[in-house]
Design goal:
alpha/beta, Rossmann fold, 238 residues, four-stranded mixed beta sheet
């Protein structure tokens, strides 16, 4: 039976680590467990696709995996033939708009949820894997036709989640304030705030917080709570 397999990263860069290095074991495991030899890279969150591909190639080649970019080939054919998909970070609005412009949203959803193709996302790539991009940190430099995303999980993520320093003199809204504002809307989703270095691993109907740092969970009309690395959060998939 085909199972959903996702690895959603807070960020591709964490202090003290190279590009994607903090999540290298989990990335390699999800690819190796599925006998993946080549990864399809989706660089649409950034403008310079060639430069982004060169950056992404380095770790994957070091780990023994080939990587090709969707921007160098027919995008529909590339998704149809992909052994695994890696969606990089950047601007979430630009990424989602491009996926809609190229009519790739339904195809990616089907390949991941119905055919079990592993999906790895980081930052914006994690945002678009969720129900919607309402809780991205990015500016709407372009506007997609809808904020609804790939819907690979039934909740939202806030990557790069930052706790408010207790001794801060900043008087503006905190990240938590923004998420609670979102929850004032009646149709809002649960939000998983991934701190830098946190990842979410999903296999079928099981979800676990992994990485090197925990998360903060926001369920509408409930008190926010911290989630430690190793915690089972499968209940979020129900």
């Amino acid at each position: 039976m085909v199972k959903r397999q996702l690895l959603l990263l807070s960020s591709s860069r964490v202090h003290g680590y190279g590009f994607l290095d903090y999540a290298s074991n989990d990335i390699c495991n999800i690819l190796t467990d599925n006998n993946v030899s080549s990864v399809l890279f989706i660089p649409y969150a950034k403008r310079n696709h060639d430069e982004y591909l060169r950056l992404a190639e380095k770790p994957f080649k070091k780990w023994g995996f080939n990587i090709t970019s969707i921007h160098t080939q027919n995008p529909h054919k590339a998704i149809q033939e992909a052994e695994a998909i890696f969606v990089g970070g950047g601007n979430t609005f630009r990424l989602l708009k491009t996926l809609y412009d190229l009519d790739l949203v339904k195809t990616i959803n089907r390949r991941v949820l119905e055919e079990g193709v592993p999906y790895i996302g980081t930052s914006a790539g994690s945002n678009v894997a969720t129900r919607s991009i309402h809780t991205t940190n990015d500016m709407p430099i372009v506007w997609p036709p809808t904020l609804s995303a790939l819907n690979l999980v039934p909740f939202n993520i806030n990557p790069h989640f930052v706790d408010s320093p207790k001794d801060s003199t900043h008087m503006g809204e905190t990240r938590e304030d923004r998420i609670l504002e979102y929850h004032e809307e009646p149709d809002s989703s649960t939000v998983l705030g991934l701190r830098e270095g946190a990842t979410l691993y999903v296999k079928d109907n099981q979800a676990i917080i992994k990485g090197i740092c925990g998360a903060r969970l926001y369920i509408r009309n409930e008190k926010p709570k911290d989630i430690k690395v190793g915690s089972d959060v499968s209940y979020l998939l129900q």
